[in-house]
C-alpha cells in the first residue's frame, strides 16, 4: 500500500495509519493535486503521478495557510489525525471557493478526529479559505 | 514580566503536529527493525489444542513465531503499582500474562506473534498459522453468567468503596411519599483513539546485562517500566519506556500490558528489534473497553422535591481474567444532599475482552443514569429540573461529611440557563416543533473528582540562558507540553521561548500515569517547586561569589525577575542567571522536586462541577436525534491555558455525544466475536455531528488544591452531556429512553 511504502520504506511518517480501511482519513495525501486515501491506494498505482504528503506542504519554515490556521484555532489536540485533516482541507480550499460552515462539515466528515476538535477545524478552514 | 500561566497561547508543539514531524510510537527509525503480526483466537472460550506454525515458519522473510510453546516465562504482574491495585476483584488490569498457557478466554485473544523482515511478509505468514481449539460454550451475557462477585473497592482505593450504605436507604425508600425506581442500561463502548496501539521493542547488552528499550503508546511510562521489569525479571533500571507523543488515549493505552509484553518477547526470540502495530480491528479486543452496565436507580423524595433516599445498584462485567469494575456510583455518592444513600456494584465475569477506564469511568454512564432519574423525578413532581437540583444542593459531601474545597455550581446553573434560553422554552413535553422536527431542551449536572497525585520534576538552568524542565508525564492531546512550559517559564521568571519542557520518558523524574483528569494538578506544582529549587541553588551560588552584586545578601532578600536575580529592596542590584553560572564556570545548575498533596486531602472534598444544557431535534419519521446546541458552564478552578482547555472540554462533550447517540460495540451472542470492529460500523462523532457549542467556565481558583488553583478538565465535558441529551429527547418526544446509545430503532420502538 502507498501508506506503508511512505511510512516504512521512505520513512515519511507524517502520513498516519488509523484504520487501513479508508474509514478514518488519517492517511490522506494528494495525488496529482487531489485528495486521496493512501491506505486504499497501491504504491504501483501511483507510478508517474505527483504525490504530496504533509511533509511537502510548508515552504521551508513558512507554513501553508491551512497549517497556520490549524495552529491559530487549535484545530487539533493529540495531532494524530491532523496531517490527514490538513491534506483534506488544503485540497478543499485550493479552488478558492468560499464554503459555508455546513459545506465544510459535509466535505470534511471523512476525516475523523477522536479528540473532536471539529468546531475549531471549521473555524480554521473558514479562515484559510479567506487567506 | 508577563505571566504566561492562564494565557490562551498556541500549542508549543503545534508546528510539529501540523507538519507531520511529531513522532508517534510506531514511527521511530530503529535500525534492523523487524515487523510483527498477531494470530488471534477465533473462539471465545476453550483452549488451544494444537498450533501448526510450520507453514508460517517456512514462509519468506519469517524470523520467528512466538507462541505459548516457546514464549519466555513471565513473572506474575505486581499486586499493586503506585498505590493502584492491579489484580483481583475491583483491580485495574488483567491477572493473566500473555502466551503462558493454552487457555482462551475471549475471541481476539493473541495466540501467536509472527516476526518477519517486512510487514507484508509478517501478515502473510500469520495467515498461515493453523490453530485447533478445544472449544467450550462462552458465557456472554450479564443475565446468565455463573461467576459473580461484589468487589470491595475500586482499584484498591480505600476512599472508593464499591458497596456502601449511609443511613437506611431501604426503610427511607419504603416510607418516602414519592418513589421512583428505574433501570438504565448502557452498551459496551471503545475508546478508538485514531492512533492504534503500537510498540517497538529493542534488546541490547548494556553494562554486562540485558537492556530493553520500548517505544510504546503508553500514558504511563513509569508504570509500564515497572510492569515490564517485574514481568521479565529485570531490574527496573534495565527498562526504558519512551513516548513523547500519544495519538489519543481516552482511557486506553494505560492499564493493559499484553501488547508491549508480546512485542518484547517477540524481539527477544527474533534477536532483532521488533515493531508491533495493532490493526483497527484489534482495538476491539486488546485495547480495553467500557463495559456494559445495567443500573437500577431508586429515588425517594418528599412532595416538595427533597431527596430522602437514593439507592444506585449496578451490574456490570469484566473479562475472565480481570476484576475491573465500572464504578457507576461515583456521581450518586456525592452530588446531592441525601440522608439515606446506598450503592452497590455486582461484577460478572464474561468471555469478552477486558475492560478498563474510559473517559469519565463510572461518571459518564453512572452520572447519566442518576441525572436521567432526577429528570424523571422532576417530571413526577411537576418541578423544573433545575429547581429540583437546587432543592437538593449539597453544601458538603453527603458520603463523608467533608466540606468542598470549592463549589460554585449554582452559578453554573444560572449561567447555563441564560445561555440556552431555558426559561423561554415551553416546559411541556412534545410541545415544541421546528418544521417537521420535534424540538426539546434538557439539562444535567456534571462533576468530576479533582485528584492530585505525587510527582517529581527537575529544572535545569544553562549558562547560555536557556532552561529545561522535565517530568515523566505525557502529551496525549491534553496540552502538557504547552501548559507545563507556561508554568515553568513563570516559575523561572523567563520568557516562554527560553524554556523547554520534556516528558514521555521513564528515565525522567517520576510522574504517575496520565489519567483521572489529574495531570495539571499533579505535575504543575512539581514543576513549580523544581523551578523554585533551582533558583535557590543559583541564589546560593551568587551569594558566595565575591564579584556578584548579590554577594553576601540574605537568600530571602533575593528574588527572580525577568531572567535575573535581584534584591527585592533594590531591583537595580542583580544580574542575569547566565552571568552567575559563567562566573562559577558551571555549564548548568539543576534541582529536583518531589511533591505530593498534603493534609488538605483529609480536610476537604475535591470536585469540579458544571451544568450542561442542550437543545435537540428529533425526526420521528426516521428516529434520528440530532444535538442542535449545547451550552455548558463549568466550575473547574483556574485554567492554565483557556485555548487548549476549551479544546479539551469540547472534545469531552463530543465524546459524551458519541456515547449518547451512536457508540456501541456488539459481540456475537453465540460466538463472542466482535461484530462491530471497524470505524464504519463503530460510529464516532464526525464533523457533521458537531453542534453549535458554547462552553464557559467560572475561572474561580480552587484555594486548597495547590498553589496553582487548577483542577483537571480532561473528563468533565464527557460527563453530564449524555443525560442532558437524553432528557432533551424526553422533552421533545415525551418518550423516556433508558438504554444507551439512543439509536433510531429504540425511539421508533417506543
UniProtKB/TrEMBL annotation, chain B:
Residues 19-137 form the Aldehyde oxidase/xanthine dehydrogenase a/b hammerhead domain. Keywords: Molybdenum, Oxidoreductase. GO terms for molecular function: iron ion binding; oxidoreductase activity. PANTHER family: ALDEHYDE OXIDASE 1-RELATED (PTHR11908:SF132), XANTHINE DEHYDROGENASE (PTHR11908). This is Xanthine dehydrogenase family protein molybdopterin-binding subunit. SUPFAM superfamilies: CO dehydrogenase molybdoprotein N-domain-like, Molybdenum cofactor-binding domain.
Amino acid at each position: 500500500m502507498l501508506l506503508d511504502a511512505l511510512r516504512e520504506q521512505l520513512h515519511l511518517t507524517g502520513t498516519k495509519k488509523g484504520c487501513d480501511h479508508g474509514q478514518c482519513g488519517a492517511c490522506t495525501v494528494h495525488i496529482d493535486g487531489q485528495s486521496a486515501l493512501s491506505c486504499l491506494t497501491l504504491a504501483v498505482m501511483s507510478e508517474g503521478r505527483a504525490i504530496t504528503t504533509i511533509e511537502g506542504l510548508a515552504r521551508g519554515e513558512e507554513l501553508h495557510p491551512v497549517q497556520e490556521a490549524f495552529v491559530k484555532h487549535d484545530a487539533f489536540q493529540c495531532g494524530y489525525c491532523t496531517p490527514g485533516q490538513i491534506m483534506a482541507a488544503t485540497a478543499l480550499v485550493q479552488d478558492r471557493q468560499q464554503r459555508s460552515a455546513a459545506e465544510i462539515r459535509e466535505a470534511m466528515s471523512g476525516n475523523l478526529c477522536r479528540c473532536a476538535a471539529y468546531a475549531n477545524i471549521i473555524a480554521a478552514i473558514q479562515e484559510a479559505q479567506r487567506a | 514580566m508577563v505571566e504566561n500561566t492562564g494565557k490562551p497561547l498556541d500549542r508549543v508543539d503545534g508546528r510539529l503536529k501540523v507538519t507531520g514531524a511529531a513522532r508517534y510510537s510506531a514511527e521511530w527509525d530503529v535500525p534492523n527493525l523487524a515487523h510483527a503480526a498477531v494470530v488471534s483466537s477465533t473462539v471465545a472460550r476453550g483452549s488451544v489444542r494444537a498450533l501448526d506454525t510450520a507453514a508460517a515458519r517456512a514462509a519468506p522473510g519469517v524470523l520467528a513465531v512466538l507462541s505459548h510453546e516457546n514464549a519466555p516465562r513471565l513473572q506474575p504482574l505486581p499486586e499493586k503499582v503506585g498505590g493502584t491495585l492491579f489484580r483481583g476483584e475491583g483491580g485495574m488490569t488483567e491477572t493473566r500474562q500473555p502466551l503462558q498457557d493454552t487457555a482462551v478466554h475471549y475471541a481476539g485473544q493473541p495466540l501467536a506473534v509472527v516476526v518477519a523482515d517486512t510487514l507484508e511478509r509478517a501478515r502473510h505468514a500469520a495467515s498461515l498459522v493453523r490453530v485447533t481449539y478445544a472449544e467450550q460454550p462462552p458465557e456472554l451475557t450479564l443475565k446468565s453468567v455463573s461467576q459473580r462477585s461484589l468487589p470491595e473497592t475500586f482499584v484498591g482505593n480505600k476512599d472508593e468503596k464499591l458497596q456502601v450504605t449511609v443511613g437506611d436507604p431501604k426503610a427511607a425508600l419504603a416510607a418516602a411519599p414519592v418513589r421512583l425506581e428505574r433501570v438504565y442500561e448502557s452498551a459496551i463502548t471503545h475508546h478508538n483513539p485514531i492512533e492504534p496501539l503500537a510498540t517497538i521493542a529493542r534488546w541490547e547488552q548494556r553494562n554486562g546485562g540485558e537492556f530493553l528499550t520500548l517505544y510504546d503508546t503508553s500514558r504511563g511510562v513509569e508504570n509500564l517500566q515497572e510492569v515490564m521489569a517485574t514481568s521479565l525479571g529485570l531490574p527496573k533500571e534495565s527498562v526504558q519506556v519512551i513516548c513523547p507523543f500519544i495519538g489519543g488515549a481516552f482511557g486506553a493505552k494505560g492499564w493493559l500490558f499484553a501488547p508491549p509484553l508480546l512485542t518484547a518477547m517477540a524481539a527477544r526470540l527474533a534477536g532483532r528489534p521488533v515493531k508491533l502495530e495493532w490493526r483497527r480491528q484489534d482495538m476491539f479486543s486488546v485495547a480495553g473497553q467500557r463495559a456494559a452496565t445495567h443500573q437500577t436507580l431508586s429515588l425517594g423524595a418528599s412532595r416538595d422535591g427533597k431527596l430522602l433516599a437514593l439507592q444506585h445498584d449496578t451490574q456490570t462485567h469484566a473479562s475472565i481474567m480481570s476484576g475491573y469494575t465500572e464504578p457507576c456510583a461515583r456521581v450518586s455518592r456525592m452530588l446531592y444532599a441525601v440522608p439515606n444513600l446506598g450503592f452497590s456494584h455486582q461484577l460478572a465475569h464474561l468471555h469478552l475482552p477486558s475492560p478498563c477506564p474510559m473517559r469519565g469511568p463510572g461518571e459518564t454512564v453512572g452520572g447519566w443514569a442518576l441525572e436521567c432519574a432526577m429528570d424523571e423525578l422532576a417530571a413526577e413532581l411537576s418541578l423544573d429540573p433545575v429547581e429540583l437540583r437546587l432543592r437538593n444542593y449539597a453544601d458538603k459531601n453527603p458520603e463523608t461529611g467533608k466540606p468542598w474545597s470549592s463549589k460554585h455550581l449554582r452559578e453554573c446553573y444560572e449561567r447555563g440557563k441564560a445561555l440556552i434560553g431555558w426559561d423561554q422554552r415551553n416546559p411541556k413535553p412534545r410541545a415544541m416543533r421546528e418544521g417537521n422536527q420535534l424540538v426539546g431542551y434538557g439539562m444535567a449536572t456534571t462533576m468530576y473528582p479533582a485528584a492530585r497525585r505525587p510527582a517529581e520534576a527537575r529544572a535545569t538552568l544553562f549558562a547560555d540562558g536557556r532552561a529545561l524542565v522535565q517530568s515523566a508525564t505525557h502529551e496525549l492531546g491534553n496540552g502538557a507540553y504547552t501548559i507545563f512550559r507556561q508554568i515553568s517559564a513563570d516559575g523561572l521568571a523567563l520568557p516562554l521561548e527560553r524554556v523547554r519542557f520534556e516528558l514521555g520518558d521513564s528515565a525522567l523524574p517520576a510522574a504517575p500515569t496520565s489519567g483521572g483528569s489529574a495531570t495539571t494538578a499533579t505535575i504543575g506544582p512539581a514543576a513549580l517547586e523544581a523551578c523554585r529549587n533551582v533558583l535557590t541553588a543559583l541564589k546560593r551560588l551568587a551569594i558566595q561569589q565575591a564579584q556578584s552584586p548579590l554577594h553576601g545578601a540574605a537568600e530571602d532578600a533575593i528574588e527572580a525577575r525577568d531572567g535575573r536575580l535581584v534584591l527585592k529592596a533594590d531591583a537595580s542590584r542583580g544580574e542575569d542567571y547566565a552571568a552567575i553560572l559563567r562566573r562559577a564556570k558551571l555549564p548548568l545548575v539543576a534541582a529536583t522536586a518531589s511533591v505530593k498533596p498534603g493534609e488538605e486531602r483529609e480536610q476537604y472534598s475535591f470536585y469540579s462541577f458544571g451544568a450542561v444544557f442542550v437543545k435537540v431535534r428529533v425526526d420521528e419519521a426516521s428516529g434520528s436525534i440530532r444535538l442542535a446546541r449545547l451550552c455548558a458552564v463549568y466550575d473547574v478552578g483556574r485554567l492554565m491555558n483557556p485555548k487548549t482547555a476549551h479544546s479539551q472540554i469540547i472534545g469531552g462533550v463530543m465524546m459524551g455525544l458519541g456515547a449518547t447517540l451512536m457508540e456501541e460495540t456488539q459481540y456475537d451472542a453465540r460466538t463472542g466475536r466482535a461484530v462491530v470492529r471497524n470505524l464504519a460500523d463503530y460510529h464516532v462523532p464526525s464533523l457533521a455531528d458537531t453542534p453549535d457549542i458554547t462552553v464557559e467556565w467560572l475561572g474561580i481558583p480552587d484555594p486548597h488544591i495547590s498553589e496553582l488553583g487548577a483542577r483537571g478538565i480532561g473528563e468533565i465535558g464527557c460527563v453530564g452531556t449524555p443525560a442532558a441529551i437524553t432528557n432533551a429527547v424526553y422533552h421533545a418526544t415525551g418518550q423516556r429512553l433508558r438504554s444507551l446509545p439512543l439509536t433510531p430503532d429504540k425511539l421508533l420502538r417506543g
